[in-house]
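Summary for the lay section of the report: proteins are chains of building blocks that fold into shapes. Here we show the chain for DM2 domain-containing protein and then a coded description of the shape we predicted for it.
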Amino acid sequence: MASLVGSGLNSAVFGAEKCVLFGVSTTMGPAAVVFPAKLGRSFGGVVACAPAAQSTRKARGITKPRPISPELQDLVGASEISRTQAVKLIWNHIKANNLQDPNNKKIIICDEKLKKIFAGKDSVGFLEISGLISPHLL
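The coded shape description reads as follows.
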């Protein structure tokens, strides 16, 4: 069942397959949310429509799983992983083992597992992490 929301200037239909927002009709999913907003002049009832079911895209770029080195496998526990997941799991390891420098949280103090990944360094800056794992993503 579709609902209608008026904004004073335009109306939007939501809860249906089509969503009309400020005169633009797009195919959207069944869910929509009404937000009060000020756009130019004051009026409420702006509708933001949720997109229809997402198409299944093939992972590419930094989200594409890749084979990884044995050193990184010891830390993450998988034989293939994407760069984004690898960085996320490394940060989980850092947080779980309290490896950030207490005086400067931007510095990571490496334990034995991290030293294997970060070329034997005792400490690294958090911005260096992504670059230092590059050789481990084959």
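Put simply, here is one thing we learned. The helical segments are 70-76, 83-96, 112-117, 129-132.
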